[in-house]
């Protein structure tokens, strides 16, 4: 959950009354929020930087409420949204109606997109707040909301980056372009020296906040830029705005542009920003549209600010929540949650109008949730389920638990290894030429080379465990009962889990008879007979070759006519790559057929 810090005095002023801390905590709970902490700016800085911090010494003692906000309620990430939502919830005001004004084609602000932007951040949306008046507190809230959105829905600026500019300092129409870092220069925000793209990367490489965003475009051949008609650079998204167009307390007209890799998220972000701060415009809750001309020549007007309708059943809402309210009562509850509602002609259904601030409403169940919040979770009567069911353990987990104890009693020690591993662990280290030979599920954006793919075998994890315990006395007998992940196009998600048992015996000699004996023990417990005649009934071994095993020392484990695993002596090259010097024998079988 995001946590928003608001000054108590400003919040109470916006709400029109004061509360005790307990009263406000109850109000937050009724509204679906949580008052996480009552603190001061000085206490917050002291926690982060220590009591002796010079910044803490000069900090304010004004009381701050830190409020936990649901991650999908982007409209509550600032003081303006919280106060507006609570006042509507209390019935003090009606939900505002947000209006989009589209100027004539000659006066509308236009943003032209060049084809080069497709190489880095292909989308841009925009809006204008006219005749805006800022105070120091509302200005701080405006900046803070942008930061909260960047950290939340924008996924640390990777999906969306927000730029805000003093419209009176620049000249439209604007251009959204992308250029090599050496081919442009501008003065970054609050700087005096002009930099090119490489200079910006060097300048902010040690910056406490901005250095975390540099990787988004650093390795790209082109950097995205927003320019005005005079060639003045407004911003280098997603890193920094230009100093020329920075907004101040005296700014009256604000141009908002959001560049993005996800157009839907960009629309949500610009809607949220303009809805929250259009209340400070001369004509409250009114936003001026911008026209974006795409690289294909298509003209699109932003922001959307669209209202849409959903029809829900009052009976369904009651059944889902566990209450028995009339349709008229449910309508009143929804109105408290900023969802203007009215009964349909049949009297049993409710037409709900969803405003542009409530992008979290995607499905009727989201509306039912708001009914439950407005009704009050504590008021919902606890009832016993209409049917009694008896839970039971998942069969594959039950079988795994039943097999663990006998394997441990056979002298093996259980290990629990990572489900993710490197590409080399399941390919080249096991004697394969490349990872392409393995049906592995790859992680799209791995944070470390050790966790690049989902494991397709348990062997690498156990060999790493043995390598980390080489100082222990021999023999080292390790086993694991866990899942591997196999690519499978026939499944809904394109992959499936497979429960396996793997055991490795490491000693001065390979000890193939040790793992063979363990296999026989497992099969005896599973009541599968040994079949030397190699007919479909029972299990037997069939010679095979595998790059992970010593030539001539590997066999398939065939059970009821199907291969369930392999057993053999591991190849010396495999042992060397896992930094082992003693020979090892191994057995790995799939136990899902026995469930």
Automatic annotation (TrEMBL):
Location(s) in or outside the cell: Cytoplasm
Enzyme Commission identifier(s): 6.1.1.20
PROSITE patterns: B5 (PS51483)
Biological processes per GO annotation: phenylalanyl-tRNA aminoacylation
GO molecular function, a single term: phenylalanine-tRNA ligase activity
SUPFAM superfamilies associated with the record: Class II aaRS and biotin synthetases, PheT/TilS domain, Putative DNA-binding domain
Gene3D superfamilies: 3.30.56.10, Bira Bifunctional Protein, Domain 2, Phenylalanyl-trna Synthetase, Chain B, domain 3
UniProt KW Protein biosynthesis keyword: yes
Swiss-Prot/TrEMBL keywords: Aminoacyl-tRNA synthetase, ATP-binding, Cytoplasm, Ligase, Magnesium, Metal-binding, Nucleotide-binding, Protein biosynthesis
Residue ranges annotated for the B5 domain, each copy included: 305-382
Reactions mediated catalytically: tRNA(Phe) + L-phenylalanine + ATP = L-phenylalanyl-tRNA(Phe) + AMP + diphosphate + H(+)
GO cellular component assignments: phenylalanine-tRNA ligase complex
CDD domains recorded: PheRS_beta_core (cd00769)
Pfam family of the protein (one): B5
Cofactor: Mg(2+)
Family listed: Belongs to the phenylalanyl-tRNA synthetase beta subunit family. Type 2 subfamily.
Assembly, per entry: Tetramer of two alpha and two beta subunits.
Descriptive protein name: Phenylalanine--tRNA ligase beta subunit
